[in-house]
Amino acid sequence: MKIVIHIDDSTQWQAALEKALPQATVLTSDAPADERKNADYLAIWKAPEHLLQEQSQLKGIINLGAGVDYLLKTPGLPSDVPIVKLRDAGMGELMADYVLYGVLHFYRSMDRYASQQQSATWKPQAVPEKTQWPVGILGLGAIGSFVASHLSQAGFPVLGWSRSPKEINGVRCLHGDEGLDELLAQVQSVVTILPDTAATEGILNAERLAKLPIGASVINPGRGSLIDEQALLDALGDTKNPGHLRGALLDVFCEEPLPTGHLLWQHPNVIVTPHMAAPTPLNDAIDQVISYIKAFEAGEALATISPEAGY
Ligand code: GLV
Questions:
Q1: Residues 12-26: pLDDT tens digits?
Q2: How many domains are contained in the chain?
């Protein structure tokens, strides 16, 4: 069995897979082209086109991340090879930490203290009751549900939204277009953890951003395409003409890396992080990768992704 890996820390993944599957030949995408060919499995994250194009007998592709948008857009992706993706695999916890940081940033007025510090202003801000700080999570897949539960356990009222109905302990789950409007009208922070698909593109557009209460904040660790960036900038306004939103913590953008001159870099109420909210943690993810390969080999049914749905 031959497995070819492509991810930032490929050699560490290679060592872990070799240990777990001693009978397999495990190569990184840096191996010579004639050795990389005829792989049974690709375990990849943001792989170059040629790696997909040069394969002819793949049994499965394992996406070493939660979002399959990049993979599905890669030219040369065979249409007849089943694709599986990591489901949570330690990313839920990383994402929950990132989102909790973002919620606390606004809830505990860290944005205001950062600005007060510019003028050495000593002015405590009121701390509202947590019950007065509802948080909305858009997207209740494996990661979104984990984040929603985590925030609920931290004491915040949590509203969750997904296209179809879901149930999560401690979370008020809404769905459909009406459910989305209902959620937006109530939350102090809205968090986007949806996949990038034709149905979610620009889901937070000008009209929906306008439904958020005055002073609400936006946290996006999901995908850049979920938010209309110009509409977000308009809703944030500027120092002379403040908009109705208070600020944003953004990890993902329509174009990555975020172009140097982009207005989001300069906006005083925006924090930009470089798509690092939940990097795939090898130790948690490796067991899932191994169980996928074993299941493929045993001919077991696997929860593959749907290229049409985009997740
Ligand atoms: C990261 O962006 C992922 O999809 O896992």
A1: 999 999 999 999 999
A2: 2
